[in-house]
Amino acid sequence: xxxxxxxxVDNKAFTLVELLIVIAIIGILASFSLASYLKYxxxxxxxxxxxxxxxxxxxxxxxYCIDLSVSAPTVISLSTVDLPNCRNQNVLGYDLNITLLGTxxxxxxxxxxxxxxxxxxxxxxxxKAVCDLNENSxxxxxxxx
Length: 145
Description:
Low-confidence stretches: none
Shape: rod-shaped
Number of domains: 1
Number of helices: 1
Largest sheet: 6 strands, antiparallel
Order of helices and strands: HEEEEEE
Structural class: alpha+beta
Helix content: 25-40%
Strand content: 25-35%
Mean pLDDT: 87
Number of strands: 6
Distance between the termini: 87 Å
């Protein structure tokens, strides 16, 4: 007589459906991380190229107000003065055009108040570099447009 021996099959592998679900989840997570990466990339381009230009322009504004020595508070626009570091410029090695905007108030004693310098890169539409000038400080940062 023949006896058939039952072989126990041990299924420890993943099914095709389980693998497809895992791949779909990985794809969704990758799309979120890619969007975050692009934001960080834009901010880093602004931080390394536009923020130093805005900071240098803000320091030129302070020097200008000290040299101007006004007798009454005077509001001045960056477009009306010719300061060496406050000109629109191209960044070397990149096709980045930096546009500088802003106004400031020169006070008696050479202090600056209500000053703001903005550096905008043509290739980065979502962020801008900003330097705020107050009595005793320059505060520079990258913020959304």
